Amino acid sequence: METSKWSRNTNIGTNTWCKSRVLTQGFEYQEAGFGRQKLPNVIGAMDGSHIPIHPPSENSARYVNQKNFHSINLLAVVDHQGRFTYIHAGEADYVHDARVFYRSSLYHEISSSAEQWVLGRTYVIADSAYLLRTYLIKAYPDYYTLTHRERRFNKTISSMRMVIEHAFRCLKGQ
Q: Can you cite an annotated GO cellular component (predicted)?
């Protein structure tokens, strides 16, 4: 298990759109952030994804995921422009996204000093794999029992999370 530290000028991906995305470290607090999506104070979107790899010669079976290809589970946070602000890579085997988060340095840093990482009343959005925290928001569960307002909130969260999905597609060169 290893956390990747990327320099500010590292390019990712292979196509020209991807090359313009620059990896940065830590959270980049921006008031505008995801504000135009009508959910204020969101500073990032978090998710995990299996990144295809060429397996190491030793223990290659450890890197076969549930879809039967070799990969590592990458946890990432992106800002409102799809720029990676945090990356945790190196989880072998099939490991649930939430478990990867709990094993990451980000979780340990936030747990020990949340005010340094998630300023004031700011939040990171995530999917249903993660537990609700004071700094982490996700959609309401049980869609069919929700009020109209809760469904609208879920739609907003879902549309805002598309930025992390797009960033992963870019990273994978898709």
A: nucleus
Burial class (CB in 10 A: 0-12, 13-18, 19+), 154: middle
Q: Is residue 109 part of a domain?
A: yes
pLDDT tens across the length of the chain (174 residues): 333 333 333 333 333 333 222 222 222 334 445 655 567 778 889 999 988 888 888 888 888 888 888 888 889 999 888 989 889 886 776 778 888 888 888 888 888 876 666 667 788 899 988 888 888 899 999 888 999 999 999 998 998 899 999 999 998 886
Looking at the 3D structure of the chain, how many domains does it have?
1
Closest listed residue to residue 73, CA positions, set 56, 96, 55: 96
165 in a structural domain:
yes
- Exposure of 57 by Cβ count < 10 A (0-12 exposed, 13-18 middle, 19+ buried)? exposed
Token pair for 11: 């390019």
Are the beta carbons of 153 and 164 closer than 8 angstroms?
A: no
168 to 10, 40, 93, 147: CA distances (angstroms): 16, 24, 19, 32
Q: What is the sign of the dihedral through the CA atoms of 117, 118, 124 and 128?
A: positive
Kindly state whether residue 9 falls inside one of the protein's structural domains: no
Kindly state whether residue 11 falls inside one of the protein's structural domains.
no
